[in-house]
Amino acid sequence: MRWLIVFVLACLVFNHLQSWLARIGLGRVPGDFTVTVAGRKLYLPVGSSLLLTLLMNVLMRWW
After folding, report:
1. Which of 60, 41, 53 is nearest to 3 (CA)?
2. Which of 4, 8, 25, 35 sits a CA distance of 20 to 30 A from 53?
3. What is the pLDDT along the chain (63 residues), one digit of tens a residue?
4. CA dist 7 to 21, 37, 59, Å?
5. How far is CA 52 from CA 13, 20, 27, 37, in A?
6. Distance (Å, rounded) from C-alpha 39 to C-alpha 56?
7. In the chain, how many H helices and how many E strands?
């Protein structure tokens, strides 16, 4: 249940920071989905979340 909450919060953060993240290259990773429902775009950053999780995991093990 905790991972579901973390994933939903990550999606909310990615949705709000989408324009900034696109400038640094995140958001174009295979596995990132953009869904348009009733005129609103919903961004599902599955690939970017996995990439950031892997990066943080490597950093924490190295630290």
Report:
1. 53
2. 35
3. 777 787 788 777 777 777 777 777 766 778 888 889 899 888 787 888 888 788 888 888 887
4. 17, 20, 20
5. 13, 15, 11, 27
6. 34
7. 3, 2
